[in-house]
Write a structure and sequence with these properties.
By secondary structure, the protein is α/β, with parallel strands linked by helices. It has 17 helices and 5 strands. It has helices at residues 5-15, 43-46, 67-75, 98-102, 112-115, 117-120, 134-141, 150-158, 160-164, 168-172, 179-186, 190-199, 201-207, 210-224, 228-242, 246-256, 264-270; strands at 30-34, 52-55, 64-65, 90-94, 122-123. It has a 5-stranded parallel beta sheet with strand order 3-2-4-1-5. The longest helix has 15 residues, at 210-224.
Length: 271
């Protein structure tokens, strides 16, 4: 089975703390800056597998806390909350850029206690000194091309958790990654999702979380050429009745089991 995007990220983060023991001292920490907070959704998956600390409001369950608490964690001076002595902590800094942490004199006050760690530790960032983004990691580290349009960037963010669980081999079979394919990760049976929405728009909307709903509307705009929020179910039902392209697939699915969508016949009758 091919390695997943998440496993590749974990491997890379582990490797970021590597050092030559014959030449330098062990790094105090790896600083992971993320100005756009692109990676936050992965933290629950990463915490059990990495010595991960997070900058933020104190929450011992997620090993999150302010700068001085993080300093104490690195120094292993807090009873009951210590990290293993043989690991290099990774400090995730949501909403903080590499430039901010490096600007010692102009660094925000709440970050100043961490700023000196750039000299005793390492910064996990691209070779061009920019923060790692989801797309940059795919392309630069994994050699998986990604479309550069805004819709794809938004879809990458929406589908991040599903993307993380996807084997790299499958990603490489669908390059360059585009918005429609990424949104499909959140709706693996997009035709059924479309028919369920046509059958009962409000109930289907309520059954989806915000990322799934955004992915659904994006799929509809790009593949079925209508906007559920702007055009409504009557326009979509008219397109279903007219057929053509992907609508033919949706019509065949409806014909197979019309009783699964009992309200849809009445909607079609209206148009």
């Amino acid at each position: 089975m091919s390695q997943t995007y998440l496993e590749s990220l974990i491997t890379n983060l582990h490797a970021s703390s590597a050092y030559n023991a014959n030449d330098v001292s062990a790094p105090a920490a790896v600083l992971w800056t993320d100005k756009e907070r692109q990676w936050e959704a992965l933290l629950p998956l990463l915490r059990p597998r990495l010595p991960l600390l997070t900058f933020g409001v104190y929450d011992p369950e997620t090993r999150t806390g302010p700068a001085y608490w993080l300093r104490c964690m690195i120094a292993r001076t807090l009873p009951g909350e210590q990290l293993p002595p043989d690991v290099t902590p990774i400090i995730y800094l949501p909403g903080v850029s590499r430039q901010e942490i490096r600007a010692v004199e102009d660094c925000p006050r709440e970050l100043q206690p961490l700023s000196e760690l750039q000299y005793r530790g390492l910064l996990w960032s691209q070779r061009n000194a920019k923060d790692w983004t989801i797309a940059a990691f795919l392309q630069a580290e994994l050699n998986i091309p990604v479309a550069g349009d805004a819709a794809t960037r938004e879809a990458l963010q929406r589908a991040l958790v599903k993307l993380a669980e996807t084997p790299l081999e499958l990603l490489r079979q669908n390059v360059p990654l585009r918005a429609a394919w990424l949104d499909g990760l959140l709706h693996p049976d997009e035709v059924r999702s479309l028919l369920l929405w046509l059958n009962n728009p409000s109930a289907h909307h309520a059954a989806l979380n915000s990322q799934e709903w955004q992915a659904f509307t994006s799929l509809c705009r790009q593949k079925y050429h209508f906007d559920p929020e702007r055009d409504g179910e009557l326009n979509a039902a008219e397109l279903l009745g007219e057929g053509g392209g992907p609508w033919d697939v949706a019509w065949e699915r409806y014909k197979e089991s019309p009783l699964a969508y009992p309200r849809l016949a009445g909607l079609l009758a209206q148009v």
